[in-house]
Amino acid sequence: MKVLVTGGSGFVGLHLCEDLLARGHQVRASVRSLEAAARLPHGVEPTSVAPLSADTDWASALHGVDAVVHSAGLAHVLRGAQAEAYERTNTQGTECLAQQAALAGVRRFVYLSTVKVHGDRSGPRPLEATDPLRPGDAYSASKARAEEALLSGQLPASLSVDIIRPPLVYGPGVKANFLRMMRMVARGVPLPLGSIHNRRSFVSVWNLCDLVATLLTSPRPGRGAWLVSDGEDVSTPALLALIGEAMGRPARVFPLPLPLLRTLFLAAGMGAEYSRLNESLYLDIDPVRRELGWSPPLTLAQGLARTVRASPR
Fold first, then answer.
1. pTM of the full predicted structure?
2. Cα gap 135→140, rounded to integer Å
3. Which of 190, 284, 198 is nearest to 238 (CA)?
4. Dist CA 4 CA 30 (whole Å)
5. Which of 7, 118, 143, 180 has the fewest beta carbons under 10 Å from its own?
């Protein structure tokens, strides 16, 4: 197939391009600068596209394309009036791309959304793809509205649409909190998180790419949403221990009563970080196993080991 990957120079986009090339597909990637084009893997065709909006012209990028994997979007935390940028980029930009893809004769459209369209926590049972959408911030709300536009019935039936809602995606190039955890384990920083007993799902970028590739070649017509993970749910201390094992050194985790731990985080202005470390957010991926015949090719431990090996020390 000839596949357009949007956001091809991003963390997930780069891995998607490499994976699809390795499977024998022709890959075109949308980029916004020459610098971004230079980061693309050898063999990927770059195409310059204006910023995502309701007016973006995708005609050249979509010419001759069989499928689109839409991984581009705005993920940075914005406040106040800037939140309108989420709507313009993630919602209107996605709807515009899908409409033009249908007009161009594209057969498949895979949209990378986020599990946060369901909220920031799962509670006592795992989240399911059929659960109501309860986005908790402007970012996830914009992704939820994009999903609604894709599944509203306004697009022609000739365009198969699949939505993937991943949890935190890790792999070489991962940033933010996951990278901070890896660095703290590598440096032997004592972490007072041993009293946390939550359940979290994660997905390696390799497992995510494998599901994308499965959907692109699936004989079933797409018109739905899928949750994805590595198929294992772990607590924050257990994740740190696995990262330590992958690095060949123990994670220095010790228990601290949760009320005291929460007080310390709040005093440091890190209430949101405490919630992410302490709350449960785990997913039910049985439907994707059952309906697509897909299972994660890598375990969580294998994904972490590959990430550590490929990451600079």
1. 0.95
2. 5
3. 198
4. 7
5. 180
Q: Are 108 and 215 in contact (CB under 8 A)?
A: yes
| C-alpha distance from residue 22 to each of 57, 70, 270 (Å) | 29, 19, 42
Give the domain extent around 36: 2-170+203-229+282-296
Structure tokens given for 114: 């986020």
Structural domain total, the chain: 1
Report yes or no on 274 lying in a domain.
no
Is 282 in the active site? no
User: Does a structural domain hold residue 151?
Assistant: yes
CA distance linking residue 150 with residue 144, whole number of Å:
10
95 part of a folded domain: yes
- Give the CATH number of the domain where residue 84 resides: 3.40.50.720
Radius of gyration of the chain (CA): 20
Residue with tokens 């997913």: 283
Angle between helices 271-278 and 258-267 (to 10 degrees): 150
Q: Which long-range contacts (CB under 8 A, 24 or more apart) does 253-262 make?
A: 253/190, 253/191, 253/192, 253/193, 253/194, 254/190, 254/191, 254/192, 254/194, 255/192, 255/194, 255/195, 256/192, 256/193, 256/194, 256/195, 257/195, 258/195, 258/196, 261/192, 261/193, 261/195, 261/196
81 inside domain: yes
Catalytic residue among 111, 139, 274, 282: 139
pLDDT single digits (tens) 220-269: 877 899 999 999 999 999 999 999 999 999 999 999 999 999 999 999 99
